[in-house]
Write a structure and sequence with these properties.
By secondary structure, the chain is of the alpha/beta class. Helix content is 39%, strand content 15%. Strand 6 (134-138), helix 5 and strand 7 (157-163) form a beta-alpha-beta unit. 54% of the residues are buried. It binds pyridoxal-5'-phosphate (PLP) and zinc ion (ZN). Keywords: Lyase, Pyridoxal phosphate.
Length: 419
């Protein structure tokens, strides 16, 4: 059964429309990413911001009327705890940035510790609905961990392809969640292509980012939460600025979709400005933005932020538009700046993996360049937990001293440090 509000798909490149068929991925004409089309008047009849906020559902499933899937069930499992992540207003970061209104949304608090749980939860719901027995994805680590975790939660089969170089914690998650894990002797882009072929060959349902239209629908729930947690309760007199890191570009285009849905519903008055942040070593989307085009030229990605290390972004066109159509921009940061941002967030009690800290590094850069003013209200999204990649975390800090376990040794150390 298809939800009454799910009307079909529209190609982001040629605008062709397609009925809500079960196994459609990208546009058959030009390979463009498909936007899910919803029946806005029907949603408006079913619910309202007031009704949504009155709920107690502490997960992204509070937005079921705005999602193109049926309720997946799974009560009492981690599938029901994806999303509805905490929002902080850290004094230490306000002091560092001199911003009057600054929030950090911590996606590291998702069940498998990254933003990707939003997409994977909705894709697993979709798989259950269309009777797909096996879900497969390519992943730099987090998307796979999220799919493995969400699938395990409800006893669904998952197959994950990841580069063999993925951080060990992410590979451990895949294995512990009981997915069939295949490490590819190559990069993420190689894994991506293999996954698409395997899905076709074996009839598996493919979750790949920038390929499956439902990932963006899951990711848009972060925008719905920012609407509920930041925009509704605060009377902002300037447009909200949202900073998020960009690899394939599916998170930023999902967030854009969320705000566009809210705008179409008439619930959102002012479109937030979306700022995509990339590493200088993996800047394919930013390059297109700066060149004033939507044409994405692949790069040879090299950054310590593995989650945003992408040669050919699979959702690049919509990712460029997300910034361009909202009066936002792209910002580039160095790997050094990313490590410094890990340390800065850490001192505010927030532990981010490199790709998560990238967004905060981007905010600092945008302040320096004058793109952001002190009275701009800002949300920074930390997309993943620092526990995902402790090796990089250790590079962001100085090593701890080792002493003999007695008071004299401690006194000597403290004297040395005081001097
Ligand atoms: C996937 C991911 C990103 C980037 O998302 P895209 O959709 O690839 O742009 C950023 N941070 C983390 C932690 C991620 O896992
Ligand atoms: Zn098309």
């Amino acid at each position: 059964m298809t939800r009454a509000t799910f009307q079909g798909y529209r190609c982001s490149l040629c605008g062709a429309e397609f009925a809500p068929q079960d196994w459609l991925y990208t546009c058959p004409h030009d390979g463009g990413n498909l936007d899910v089309v919803l029946d806005t008047p029907a949603i408006r009849q079913q619910t309202s911001p007031r009704q949504i906020s009155a709920q107690t559902e502490p997960s992204l499933w509070r937005y079921l009327p705005l999602l193109p899937v049926d309720d997946p069930g799974g009560q009492g499992t981690p599938l029901r705890t994806a999303g509805w992540t905490p929002l902080y207003s850290p004094p230490a970061l306000k002091a560092q940035t001199s911003l009057h209104a600054l929030w950090v949304k911590d996606e590291g608090k998702n069940p498998t510790a990254s933003f990707k749980d939003r997409a994977s939860a909705v894709v697993v719901a979709r798989a259950r609905q269309i009777g797909a027995e096996v879900v497969v994805t390519a992943s730099t680590g987090n998307a796979g961990a999220a799919l493995a975790g969400m699938a395990a939660a409800v006893g669904h089969r998952a197959v994950i392809f990841a580069p063999r170089t993925a951080p060990p914690a992410k590979i451990a998650q895949l294995l512990v969640f009981g997915a069939q894990v295949i490490l590819v002797d190559g990069n993420y882009d190689n894994a991506f292509d293999l996954t698409v072929q395997a899905a076709q060959e074996f009839g598996w349902y493919c979750r790949n980012t920038g390929y499956n239209a439902f990932t963006a629908e899951g990711k848009k729930t972060a925008a719905l939460e920012i609407f509920e947690q930041v925009i509704l309760p605060n009377r902002l007199d300037r447009p909200l600025c949202v900073f998020v890191s960009v690899g394939d570009g599916n998170i930023i285009s999902g967030i854009h979709k969320g705000f566009k849905d809210l705008y179409a519903l008439g619930w959102l008055e002012t479109m937030p400005r979306l700022f995509g942040v990339q590493s200088t070593g993996s800047a394919a989307v930013a390059n297109a933005f700066f060149a004033g085009t939507e044409e994405i030229t692949p790069v040879q990605a090299a950054t310590l932020a593995d989650s945003i290390s992408v040669d050919l972004p699979r959702d690049g066109v919509r990712a460029v538009r997300a910034a361009r159509q909202t009066g936002g921009a792209y910002v580039l940061v160095s790997d050094d700046a990313i490590l410094q941002a890990i340390a800065a967030l850490g001192k505010a009690g927030i532990f981010a993996e490199p790709a998560g800290a990238t967004a905060y590094a981007g905010l600092l850069e945008a302040l320096k360049s004058g793109q952001i003013q002190p009275d701009d209200p800002v949300v920074v999204i930390n997309t993943g937990s620092g526990l995902k990649d402790v090796k990089s975390a250790m590079r962001a800090v100085t090593e701890a001293p080792v002493i003999e376990p007695n008071l004299n040794a401690l006194k000597r150390l403290l004297e040395k440090n005081l001097r």
